[in-house]
Design brief:
The protein has a single domain, classed as 434 Repressor (Amino-terminal Domain), CATH 1.10.260. It is an all-alpha fold. The protein is globular. The chain is 63% helix and 0% strand. Helix 1 crosses helix 6. It has 6 helices and no strands. The mean pLDDT is 88. The protein starts with a helix and ends with a helix.
């Protein structure tokens, strides 16, 4: 098991998320609208955890959300195991 600070250091920075989307010809705004959200909805996930928004971005990048935000998903995994 990794410690929380190590996972946070492995989380992608917001600039990397935007860069990876741009490299694929995508944007947070376009993904928000495509998913049926208001135009700036997905921007919130860069600073605030939201499983649904994280999944939209991960799907667009062809990844799993836990690979982009390991600290968020490790915490969720622990909570589910404790329940």
């Amino acid at each position: 098991m990794t410690d929380k600070n190590e996972d946070q250091r492995r989380d992608w920075l917001p600039a990397k998320v935007r860069f990876e989307l741009e490299m694929r010809g995508l944007s947070l705004r376009a993904l928000s609208l495509e998913a049926g959200y208001s135009r700036d909805s997905l921007k919130a996930v860069l600073r605030t955890p939201c499983e649904t928004y994280e999944q939209v971005i991960a799907d667009a990048l062809g990844m799993k959300p836990e690979d982009i935000w390991p600290s968020r998903w490790e915490i969720r995994s622990r909570k589910r195991k404790a329940a």
